[in-house]
Specification:
- With 270 residues, this protein is α/β, with parallel strands linked by helices.
- Among the domains are: 2-43 and 97-204, Ribosomal protein L4/L1 (Ribosomal Protein L4, Chain: A); 216-250.
- It has helices at 21-24, 30-43, 103-120, 136-146, 162-169, 184-189, 197-204, 229-255; strands at 2-7, 13-19, 123-126, 153-156, 174-177, 192-196.
- Helix 5 (162-169) links the parallel strand 4 and strand 5 (174-177).
- The radius of gyration is 35 Å and the shape is elongated.
Length: 270
């Protein structure tokens, strides 16, 4: 079992934490990590590169000079790939660079990257991050205290925190990520990886991932979320309204005269 020191924001060791071997003590598979990273880099390519062939370049419709008698090499078009301002032979064309990688390979590469981070000594754990407000000065002071002020730092927090994210946002060498969004490339690219204790709990499954904020139109409520009491009263009241409208329509139909020859009862109006 792998253990790691957990420090507070003052840099003091609070406790030692055991890391599950499933994530942090597995075999490091370099070829799989390479394949996953290449697939990830290929996925962000726009694929809009394009060149023109000799048939797409404007001009070149007439033969530059006659076939024989000039002493020069024969040519049929001034837009040949061997001419200046001519077309491009075998040039790139717009295409999709996506490389398919299955889930097992992604999981294996992530476990390999986490194991490599532990064995190389670039993984650190902080007990918790609590800032009074967004201040870059506090973020710099924290990195200095933990000895993470050199190189690229990957900060992994359990859930979105406005104060923490805004405090580190102005630091170009710091990237903030969440346990469910970790990538092999980010773990390998960073010189130091800083986890919060809450982020480790979410990553290892000791604590369920935080649910989306209610009322967020882009994310929506979870499927098992309870309906508020006000909404339940509204839903129960709707069928009563429909029933009342149906009874009113029935009374109106009974009041109408039946047929063209029907005579209204004069006493009915009294």
């Amino acid at each position: 079992m792998v253990t790691i020191e957990v420090r507070d924001v003052q840099g003091e060791v609070v406790t030692e934490r055991e890391l599950p071997a499933e994530f942090f003590d597995s075999a490091v598979n370099v070829p799989v990590m390479h394949q996953v990273v290449v697939a990830g880099m290929a996925a962000i390519r726009a694929g809009t590169h394009s060149t023109k062939t000799r048939g797409q370049v404007s001009g070149g419709g007439r033969k530059p000079w006659r076939q024989k008698g000039t002493g020069r090499a024969r040519h049929g078009s001034s837009r040949s790939p061997i001419w200046t301002a001519g077309g491009v032979a075998h040039g790139p064309k717009p295409r999709d660079h996506t490389v398919r990688v299955n889930k097992r390979m992604r999981r294996l590469s992530l476990r390999s990257a986490l194991t490599d981070a532990v064995r190389s000594g670039k993984l650190a754990v902080v007990d918790g991050l609590t800032f009074d407000g967004p201040r870059t000065k506090d973020a710099v002071s924290l990195l200095d205290t933990l000895g993470l002020n050199r190189g690229r730092v990957l900060l992994v927090i359990a859930e979105p925190d406005e104060a923490v994210e805004k405090s580190f946002r102005n630091l170009g060498d710091v990237k903030i990520d969440y346990p469910g969004n970790l990538s092999t490339f980010d773990l390998l690219y960073a010189d130091r990886v800083l986890f919060t204790s809450g982020a480790l709990d979410v990553l290892t499954g000791a604590v369920p991932a935080p649910s989306p904020t209610p009322g967020n139109a882009e994310i929506g409520l979870p499927a098992d979320a309870e309906v508020p009491a006000e909404d339940q009263e509204t839903e129960e009241a709707e069928p009563e309204t429909d029933t009342a409208e149906a009874e009113a329509d029935t009374d109106a139909e009974e009041a109408e005269p039946q047929g063209e020859g029907a005579v209204a009862d004069p006493e009915a109006d009294r």
